[in-house]
Amino acid sequence: ENISDFSLNITDCTQVVVPEEVFFTVAAAGILENLLILIAVVRNKNLHLPMYFFICSLAISDMLGSLYKTLENIFIILCKMGYLTRHGDFEKKLDDAMDSMFILSLLGSIFSLLAIAADRYITIFYALRYHNIMTLRRALVILAIIWAFCAGSSIAIALFSYEAATVIPFTILFPLMMFFILCLYVHMFLLARSHAKKIALLPSSTVHHRTNMKGAITLTIFLGVFLCCWAPFVLHILLARFCPHNPYCACYMSIFHVNGTLIMCNAIINPMIFAFRSPELRSTFKKMFYCSR
Amino acid sequence: MSALRLISNRTSQQALSNSDYTWDYEYYEYGPVSFEGLKAHKYSIVIGFWVGLAVFVIFMFFVLTLLTKTGAPHQDHAELSEKRFRMNSFVADFGRPLESERVFSHQMGEESQSLFHFCINEVDHMNKEKENQKGPSLESNTHFHEAPKSSGMFEEDLHCLTKFNIPNFVNTEQNSSLGEDDLLISESPIIL
Fold first, then answer.
1. Which family does it belong to (chain B) (predicted)?
2. Residue of A68, A71, A212 for testing the chain B interface, max B β-carbons within 10 Å
3. ipTM of this complex
4. pTM surpassing 0.80?
5. Could you list the residue range(s) of the whole structural domain that residue A183 is in?
6. A84 vs B23: CB contact, 8 Å cut-off?
7. A187-233 residue pLDDT tens
8. Contact check, Cβ <8 Å, B71/A193
9. Residue A138: which CATH number?
10. Is A6 a domain residue?
């Protein structure tokens, strides 16, 4: 017998395991941070604006992502300790529910980012009519539609996750949305650049290129962080569907937990680059913390 | 022979795990994968993916910084005042530039004072004219706004009214200024 033909070297490319403490710390930090943002927006009447509602929507989707990972870890620990059976029907349903929560979080993040970009776009290019275009009620309706669509799609994707027909649209949606958001921001950026140039022509101005450099850095951070945190997972889904037995794909899929931790890091970073840039929100936080002391 | 038995054990295990549901850290049941005869490094997809992602992000950054340096200003100077405030708030929200912000605010301070007095008069004037022209002025206002290359004087009038009504970036009393929305949109422009 040619044993080498049947060598099952599954010890190569073992699952890279992230320590549970790291997992829980990152998840808890993400949940707390986003919860703080929600509380701050609810408590401060000045923040009842469409822009902050979209930021809240992003915070909710980040929270869902971290919550999913935390719950999953808790359930796995419970399984290992024997409190939950591994082969139960209830556990399967629970796992499906949690999968759909995770996909809901991803879709919610993408659409919230899209809404934030569109809101900023309208603010820049339709500044005079902004209050008429983006009323509070319209913003809430838009958010309701987004979340209804995300909930429906996530349940459908979780139920039919092994069909190619769900995996392909899911993985196409991701870069498509990123590209669209990038286009919106680039257009805003071009406007800022042309104005900076005009202001530089004024005799008394001392505008440096640093102004627009910071804009470029900020934009790159916005989109780069989202890409780096979510793209590994999306690639994982693609590979799991189309080449699960290829050794290269299997090695990529062995870092699944690192990808999950990255998604939770996204939940921590997103508030810093969206919510905490607003001075009103920062002052609300200060008031919340200093008043409680 | 022992190898064959091993294989049959594993495959039956896999069949079992496919039918029953298991909840494990091994999230996906990959099954036996042979790592023999790999031409490239086994983590090549991982490395290739991350390198590609880093290259893409850096490329995006360079494209954006190139955008700051190339291109000529083709819009006329007259629009500058109308969009300067927007530009200021846009940049302030995006990048928080320190020096240029001071420059902007200094310029804006001087300009806003003169515009402020101008606006007080204009708002009073417009209040009287509000009842006269409501319907058709809406169309003309939207048309004027959508075509940014319009006369500078009109832009300055609208610009002064927007100072009381800037969304989001400036911490004005948003709730109180909502009442001025109708005033802003329905007013006819006063051309000096």
1. Belongs to the MRAP family.
2. A212
3. 0.77
4. no
5. 20-197+213-283
6. yes
7. 887 887 777 778 778 776 555 555 557 777 887 888 888 889 888 98
8. yes
9. 1.20.1070.10
10. no
**Do B99 and A198 count as a contact with CB atoms less than 8 A apart?**
no
pLDDT digits (tens, 9 = 90+) for A5-61: 444 444 467 778 888 888 888 889 999 999 999 999 998 888 888 989 999 999 999
What's the total number of domains in chain A? Answer: 1
CB contact under 8 A, A220 and B103: no
Best of A132, A248, A252, A273 to disrupt the B interface by mutation (most B CBs within 10 Å)?
A248
Report yes or no on A14 lying in a domain.
Answer: no
Give chain B positions within 8 Å (CB) of A192.
87, 90-91, 94
Interface contact A208-B99, CB threshold 8 A: yes
Task: Give the DSSP letter string of chain A.
Answer: --GGGG---TTTTPPPPPPHHHHHHHHHHHHHHHHHHHHHHHH-GGG-SHHHHHHHHHHHHHHHHHHHHHHHHHHHHHHHHTSS-SS-HHHHHHHHHHHHHHHHHHHHHHHHHHHHHHHHHHHHHTGGGHHHHS-HHHHHHHHHHHHHHHHHHHHHHHHTTTSHHHHHHHHHHHHHHHHHHHHHHHHHHHHHHHHHHHHHHSTT----THHHHHHHHHHHHHHHHHHHHHHHHHHHHHHHHH-TTSHHHHHHHTTHHHHHHHHHHHHHHHHHHTTTT-HHHHHHHHHHHHHH-
